[in-house]
Fold this protein.
Amino acid sequence: MSSATAQPQLHVGVVGGGIGGLAAALCAAQAGWRATVWEQAHWLGEVGAGVQLGPNATRRLQAWGVLPHLVARASQPTDLLVRCATSARVLGRLPLGERAQRHHGAPYLTLHRADLHAALRQCAAHHGVVMHVGSEVTALDPVQATLQVGDSAHAAQALVLADGVWSRLHAAVMQAPPVSVTGHVAYRALPIQQRLPAALRSQVVQVWLAPHAHVVTYPVRGGDMLNLAVFIEGQAMVLAPHWQQPVDWPTLASRLPPCCAPLRALLEVAGEAGDGWRQWPMVQRPPLTHAGQMARARLALVGDTVHPMLPYMAQGAGMAIEDAHALGQVMASYEPVEQALGRYARQRWQRNARVQARAQRNARWFHARGAKAWLRNQAMAWLGTRVLDVPWLYRG
Ligand SMILES: Cc1cc2nc3c(=O)[nH]c(=O)nc-3n(C[C@H](O)[C@H](O)[C@H](O)COP(=O)(O)OP(=O)(O)OC[C@H]3O[C@@H](n4cnc5c(N)ncnc54)[C@H](O)[C@@H]3O)c2cc1C
C-alpha cells in the first residue's frame, strides 16, 4: 500500500482489538495513518478455538506481510472431506493444499485464532500501532470522530468500530436492532492429537453432516492439535456474551444426533484429550441491505459488529480481514475522510451480504434431512468439487 505523505499524519481510533480491529489498525498504519486500538479485555491474547482461512483471506495477509509469521503455526490441509455422520461415507471431496494455491493464488490455512491474533498484533506493533488494553470505549461520536474511554475523551480524524458480535456501541451509533438468536449452539474441543488414538488423528478438514447438526474437524498448531466444533440447531440457551461456557461430555452426548462409531469415538475422547468442551450460542444479523450500514460520517464498521453470521461458510474472520484491507485502501487515498469511508462501505456491503446469505443457506443445506439430504448428497456425488469450491469467494 502506498502511504499518504506530505500531510500531517491523520489519526484513526479503533474500538476493539479482535481480528477485525487489529487488521484495520494494521492496514491504516500501512496506509500512513497513526492508529490507536482500545480493547476492553485486559490482555490481547484471544481465546477461542480454530479458524479456517480461505485464499481470499490469506492473500490479504500475504500482502500485509503477516503470512510469514503464521505459516509455522498454521496447517495447510490437503483436502476437505464431507461425510455422512451416521455412516461415515464420504459424500464429497474438495482438494485444498496445492490446488488452492494453484486455482486461487493463495493457501487455504487452518489455525488457532490465538496464533492469528498474535501475528496481527506483532505486525501492528511493528507498524507503530498503539494498543491500550483494559480500555472499554463507552461512547463515540461518528461526526466529530471522538470517543470516550473512562474519564478520558480522545479525538481522531476517523473511527473504526470493530467491537464484535456483542457490540454495545453499534445499536447506539447506527440505530441497529440487536442481533438475533439462531437456536444454533456451537460446542468446541481442542484435543492434542498425540493424546488421541492413532486412528482418530487427522490432518484434513472434515465436515460430518447429520439432520439438524454437523461436526467440523481440522488441524491447528501446525497439526499438533485438532479443532473440533459440533453445531446443533433447535436449542434454547441463555445468551452469555462470551465463548467460554464449559459443558460436560454427558450433557453434550445427550444432545448429539446419531453418529457412526469413528465420529462417536472421537467426540467421546476429545474433551479429555484437550481442555474439555465449551459451548456458546450463535447469533446473527440479516444480510446487509445497503452501504449506509457499514459507515456513517467519520466512522467505519468492520467485522462481526456489522455482519455477524453463522460460521457455516468459515468466513467471518475472512470478511473482517477483507473489510480491513478495503479500509486501508481508501485510507491511502487523498479523499476527504467521509468520502473515503463512504467508498469503503459501497465496496464492501454487497460482498458481505452475499456471504451472510450463503452462510444461512448452508445452515439449511448442511442440516437437511430426508429427500432434501438425499438431493444434497447426490449433487455432491455428481458435481464433485464444483459444489464445494467457491471461486467467486476465494478469488475475490
Ligand atoms: C464456532 C465459530 C467458528 C468460526 N469459524 C470461523 C472460520 O473457520 N473462519 C472464519 O473466517 N471465521 C470463523 N468464525 C467467525 C470469526 O470468529 C469472527 O467472524 C471473527 O472473530 C470476528 O472478529 P471481530 O474482530 O469482528 O470480532 P471479535 O473477535 O469479537 O473482536 C471484538 C473485540 O472488541 C472488544 N470490545 C468489545 N466491546 C468493546 C468496547 N466497548 N471497548 C473496547 N473493546 C471492546 C472485544 O473484547 C473483542 O476483543 C467462527 C465463529 C464461531 C463462533
Observations:
- The radius of gyration is 21 Å.
- Residues 11-76+108-178+285-364 form a domain with the FAD/NAD(P)-binding domain fold (CATH 3.50.50.60).
- The first strand starts at residue 11 and ends at 15.
- The mean pLDDT is 93.
